[in-house]
């Protein structure tokens, strides 16, 4: 907890006056962070699925989200002597109901590591973190619970992030969000589990009827976005509880109070021919400079990047630079001009990478430097893979992807080339990341 306190103090120091608002928001987060939690210990995290909404022409193919049945199949197989599980079930709000359920789990040698209760009008939702014998599957756990009086039971394999108690986990997500606006979608995803997150612009049809405090409708929650519009979160397999809704709303309110912000980290690099460049994070405040760079690019470079004519660059750049859809790195020349942009765009279980380098600065290694940093940031957030959508004739992008040293998969879809790099633990161990890999998190 002392480390989290230090992180929050650093956030307040770096953000100045707005950082003082962090304390009030922390109180709201702690007030909703759980009822019965115990401190626990161990294991590793795979990021849940998310869709952050409309994407520009470079967006990848649909249908990339991992099938739930595949995850369940892996869970059924089990490995080792025990396995971690998250389980949620509804029990009657009556004395002895929870005790009967716990006794049934104990009979099957299932260890209850933590428990949170969410009282509702027609019962109580209990959320468990369990250590079960390796031979006991998710469906087997559900059967045990059902026989003991549980209803609407849901199970999923767990990992190390689930072993942290709820208040500590929420504080950590709040600290990350306070330091970087681009962390909000990731924080919501880690807070709420496997879900679909969409950012809907102001004036969209879904914007209508959402009150200032947000709306909770069973498996869908909607929150007013700080910059206007609505953040929609949908989890079809599991209804949201009022406590989850309150935590999500507190994170969004924290983001709104702190306003636009980015990590201050930047690297100055020297290119082989001797020119210095600066690599830093960018957002919508860099729109004008990014637009000017596009105006200096040739039609061929723009077509290669956007896979066709670009009639409304502003619309694409507003999307690409928004922290709601991912992270952006900018490369500046010694004169301060932006000469290249690299984007990391959240797209379901996978993440898209996209690059554009001004003509006069191509073939100097800038694209490879950007790509390595973007992929390192994707790995830090737990992404399983990254993909690039390009044309087969774009030999520079293909070479940059190959230069990562990661396992690659090539697919031709609708006349475009999709190159996917796998980021599993074994693959990441073989990669030498660029020395500035932490630029997105400093």
Tell me what the structure shows.
With 442 residues, the chain is of the alpha+beta class. It contains 14 helices and 16 strands. The chain has three domains: 2-37 and 176-258, no CATH class; 78-162, Alpha-Beta Plaits (2-Layer Sandwich); 266-440, Aminopeptidase. β12 (338-347) and β13 (350-357) form a beta hairpin. α6 (166-179) runs antiparallel to α7 and α7 (183-192) runs antiparallel to α8 (242-258). The longest helix has 17 residues, at 242-258. The model is unreliable at 1-15, 17-79 and 435-442 (pLDDT under 50).
How is this structure best summarized?
With 442 residues, the chain is an alpha+beta fold.
Series of H and E elements: HHHEHEEHEHHEEEEHEEHHHEEEHEHEEH
- In the CATH scheme, the class of the largest domain would be Alpha Beta
Which fold name fills CATH's third level, the topology of the largest domain?
Aminopeptidase
Helix content: 25-40%
Q: What is the annotated CATH architecture of the largest domain?
A: 3-Layer(aba) Sandwich
- Spans of at least 5 consecutive residues with low confidence: 1-15, 17-79, 435-442
- The helix-and-strand class reads alpha+beta
Spatially, the strands of the biggest sheet line up as 9-10-11-12-13-14-16-15
Mean pLDDT: 75
Report the end-to-end length measured between terminal Cα atoms. 20 Å
Please tally the β strands and state the result.
16
Tell me the strand percentage band: 25-35%
Q: So, the CATH homologous superfamily of the largest domain?
A: Gcn5-related N-acetyltransferase (GNAT)
Query: What is the C-alpha radius of gyration, as a whole number of Å?
Result: 23 Å
Q: Counting H and I runs of at least 4 residues, what is the number of helices?
A: 14
Largest sheet: 8 strands, mixed
- Count of domains: 3
Shape: elongated
């Amino acid at each position: 907890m002392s480390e989290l306190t230090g992180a929050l103090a650093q956030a307040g120091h770096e953000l100045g006056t707005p950082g003082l608002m962090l304390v009030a928001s922390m109180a709201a987060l702690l007030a909703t962070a759980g009822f019965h939690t115990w401190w626990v210990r161990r294991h590793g995290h795979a990021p849940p699925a998310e869709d952050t909404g409309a994407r520009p022409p470079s967006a990848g193919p649909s249908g990339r989200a991992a099938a739930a049945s595949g995850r369940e199949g892996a869970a059924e197989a089990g490995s080792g002597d025990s396995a971690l599980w998250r389980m949620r079930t509804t029990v009657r709000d009556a004395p002895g109901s929870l005790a009967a359920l716990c006794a049934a789990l104990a009979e099957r040698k299932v260890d209850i590591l933590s428990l949170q209760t969410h009282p509702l009008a027609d019962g109580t939702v209990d959320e468990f973190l369990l250590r079960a014998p390796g031979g006991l599957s998710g469906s087997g756990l559900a059967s045990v619970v059902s026989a003991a009086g549980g209803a609407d039971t849901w199970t999923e394999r767990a990992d190390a992030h689930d072993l942290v108690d709820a208040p500590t986990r929420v504080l950590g997500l709040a600290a990350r969000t306070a330091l970087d606006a681009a962390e909000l979608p990731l924080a919501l995803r880690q807070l709420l589990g496997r879900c679909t997150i969409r950012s809907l612009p102001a004036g969209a049809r879904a914007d209508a009827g959402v009150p200032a405090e947000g709306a909770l409708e069973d498996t869908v929650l909607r929150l007013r976005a700080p910059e206007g519009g609505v953040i929609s979160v949908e989890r079809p397999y599991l209804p949201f509880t009022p406590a989850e809704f309150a935590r999500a709303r507190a994170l969004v309110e924290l983001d709104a109070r702190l306003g636009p912000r980015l990590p201050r980290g930047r690297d100055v690099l020297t290119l082989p021919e001797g020119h210095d460049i600066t690599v830093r994070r960018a957002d919508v405040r860099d729109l004008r400079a990014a637009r000017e760079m596009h105006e200096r690019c040739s039609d061929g470079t723009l077509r290669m990047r956007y896979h066709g004519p670009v009639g409304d660059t502003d619309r694409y750049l507003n999307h690409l630079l928004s922290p709601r859809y991912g992270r952006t790195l900018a490369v500046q020349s010694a004169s301060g001009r932006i000469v290249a942009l690299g984007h990391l765009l959240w797209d379901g279980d996978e993440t898209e990478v996209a690059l554009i380098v001004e003509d006069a600065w191509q073939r100097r290694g800038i694209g490879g430097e950007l790509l390595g940093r973007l992929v390192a940031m994707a790995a830090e957030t737990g992404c399983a893979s990254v993909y690039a959508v390009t044309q087969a004739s774009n030999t520079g992008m293909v070479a940059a992807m190959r230069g990562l040293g990661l396992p690659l998969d090539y697919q031709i879809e609708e006349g475009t080339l999709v190159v996917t790099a796998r980021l599993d633990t074994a693959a990441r161990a073989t990669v030498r990341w660029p020395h500035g890999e932490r630029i997105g998190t400093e």
